TrEMBL record:
Name by which UniProt lists this protein: AI-2E family transporter
Superkingdom of the source species: Bacteria
Pfam families, sorted: AI-2E_transport (PF01594)
Classification of source organism: Bacteria, Bacillati, Actinomycetota, Actinomycetes, Streptosporangiales
Chief site of localization: membrane
Stretches that traverse the bilayer: 95-115, 121-139, 151-172, 229-254, 283-310, 316-340, 347-367, 387-418
C-alpha cells in the first residue's frame, strides 16, 4: 500500500523524521514503558538525525533554602529577592479584626453623639415637614380652583402667620397687665405679712425678717434676680428663634413638597415605584387629613370656650379661649390641661365661675370625644383607639409634646403598611 503522506518535490525541503521518533505503535517497547519513564532527551544535537532540534534540558531543582528565599542561593547577594517572598496577608489576623471592630464602635459612638447634639435641629426639620404635609391639602384645594401654587401657598401661610399674631396680641397684654398688678400689690402683701401675729412670733423666735433684710442688702437677691432674668431672656429668645426657623422651614418644605416627593420616589426601584408611590400618597393624605382635622377640632373648642366665657363675663375670655385651642392640639392630655388652666383662672375671680367652668369642660369633653372627633377624623386616620393611646404615650415619652403630635399619624402610616404589605405577604407564604 503506497504511503498516504504527501512527498514534496522540492529538494530543499527537510527530510522526513525517522520512524524511531514517530508515535510508538501498540506492542512496541516504547508503548509498554510507563509514562513516568519517559526517554531521556539527547544532550548533544549530533546524536539526533538532521532536521530534529535538540530538546531543552530539564531545569535543575532548587534546594529548599533557595525556594524559600525566592531564588537560588546566590540571589540574596545579587539583590533579586533580598527579603524573601511575601507571606500571607493579615486579613484574618486577630489584631486586624480587633482594630476593625474598635473603629466600627468608635464610628457608631461618634454618629450617636452627632445625632444627640443635632437633636433640636432634627426635631425642627421633622415638625416643619409635618406641618408642610398638613397644610398641603389646603394648598391643593386652592389649586383645584385654578389658583397658582405660589399664590395658594401665600394665602395659607399668611393665615398661619395671622393666627400666631392674633394669639400673641391676645396673650401678651393680659399677662403684662397681671404682672404689673402683682408688682404693684407686693408692698401691700408685705405689710399684711408683717401685721400677721404668727409671723411676728416666728420673727421674734428665729429673726426671719432680719435675715431676709441681710440677704437683700448683701446683694444675693440682686444676683438671683439678675440670673433669673438672664435665663428667662435666653429662653424667650431661643423660643422666638426656634419659632421663626420653624416657619421658614415650613414655607420652604411647602413650596418644594412635590419635587421632594418625586425625588424620594425616584430612589425606589422601578419595579416597585408605582405601588410605593400609591402607598406614599395615601400616607401623606392621611397625615394631611389628620392635621386639618385636628386644627378644625381645636378651632371648634376655642370658639365654644370663648362664647361660654364671654357669656359668663370671665376676664380675658379671648386669651383663655386661645389657650384652650392651642392645648387641644395635643392628643389625650391637651384638652385636660386647657380645662384645668381656664378653671383655675376662673376660680381666682369667683368660686361660682370656677365651678361653672369645670362643669362646662366636663360636658364638652364628652361631646368632643364621642361626637366631634369621630366625625372629623373618620376620613383621615384609621387607627384603633387602643393603638392611639399607646402611640401617644410612646411619642410623648420619647419627644414630649412633639412626639405626642406625631404619634398618631405615624401609627396610622405603620398600620397602612402592615395592612397592605406585611399581611398580604404573610398570606402568600
Amino acid at each position: 500500500m503506497p504511503d498516504a503522506s504527501p512527498v514534496s518535490d522540492d529538494p530543499k525541503a527537510p527530510a522526513p523524521a525517522p520512524r524511531a521518533l514517530a508515535e510508538p505503535v501498540d506492542g512496541s517497547p516504547e508503548a509498554r514503558r510507563p509514562r513516568s519513564e519517559a526517554p531521556v532527551p539527547a544532550r548533544d544535537a549530533r546524536d539526533l538525525p538532521a532536521g530534529v532540534p535538540a530538546a531543552a534540558p530539564e531545569p535543575t531543582a532548587l534546594p529548599p533554602d533557595a525556594r524559600e528565599a525566592g531564588g537560588p542561593p546566590g540571589a540574596r547577594e545579587e539583590g533579586e529577592a533580598p527579603y524573601g517572598r511575601p507571606g500571607k496577608p493579615l486579613a484574618r489576623s486577630p489584631f486586624v479584626v480587633g482594630l476593625t471592630a474598635g473603629m466600627g464602635l468608635l464610628t457608631a459612638w461618634a454618629l450617636s453623639q452627632a445625632l444627640v447634639t443635632a437633636r433640636s435641629v432634627i426635631v425642627l426639620i421633622v415638625v416643619a415637614m409635618f406641618l408642610a404635609v398638613g397644610l398641603n391639602p389646603a394648598v391643593e384645594a386652592l389649586q383645584r380652583r385654578r389658583m397658582a401654587r405660589r399664590w395658594a401657598i401665600s394665602i395659607v401661610f399668611g393665615a398661619v402667620i395671622l393666627f400666631f399674631v392674633l394669639f400673641g396680641l391676645a396673650i401678651v397684654p393680659p399677662v403684662s397687665q397681671e404682672a404689673a398688678s402683682f408688682v404693684g400689690a407686693v408692698p401691700g402683701y408685705v405689710q399684711e405679712l408683717l401685721a400677721n401675729p404668727t409671723l411676728k412670733q416666728l420673727d421674734t423666735d428665729y429673726q426671719i425678717l432680719t435675715r431676709l433684710g441681710d440677704y437683700i442688702t448683701s446683694g444675693g437677691l440682686a444676683q438671683s434676680v439678675a440670673g433669673g432674668l438672664v435665663g428667662a431672656g435666653a429662653v424667650v429668645f431661643d423660643a422666638f428663634f426656634s419659632g421663626l426657623t420653624l416657619l421658614v422651614l415650613t414655607l420652604y418644605f411647602l413650596g418644594s413638597l412635590p419635587s421632594i416627593k418625586d425625588y424620594l420616589f425616584a430612589l425606589v426601584p422601578s419595579s416597585r415605584r408605582t405601588r410605593t408611590r400609591a402607598l406614599g400618597d395615601e400616607i401623606l393624605n392621611g397625615i394631611g387629613g389628620y392635621v386639618a382635622g385636628n386644627l378644625l377640632i381645636s378651632v371648634i373648642a376655642g370658639v365654644v370656650t370663648w362664647v361660654f366665657l364671654a357669656v359668663l363675663n370671665v376676664e380675658y375670655a379671648l386669651a383663655l379661649a386661645l389657650v384652650v385651642a392651642v392645648t387641644d392640639l395635643v392628643p389625650l392630655v391637651g384638652a385636660i390641661i386647657g380645662a384645668v388652666l381656664v378653671t383655675g383662672v376662673a376660680l381666682l375671680q369667683s368660686g361660682t365661675l370656677g365651678i361653672a367652668c369645670g362643669i362646662f369642660f366636663l360636658i364638652y369633653q364628652q361631646v368632643e370625644n364621642y361626637l366631634i372627633y369621630p366625625r372629623v377624623m373618620k376620613r383621615s386616620v384609621d387607627v384603633a383607639p387602643a393603638v392611639t393611646v399607646v402611640a401617644a404615650l410612646f411619642g410623648g415619652t420619647l419627644l414630649g409634646i412633639v412626639g405626642a403630635l406625631l404619634a398618631i399619624p405615624v401609627a396610622a402610616a405603620l398600620a397602612l403598611i402592615i395592612r397592605e404589605v406585611v399581611i398580604p405577604r404573610q398570606a402568600r407564604l
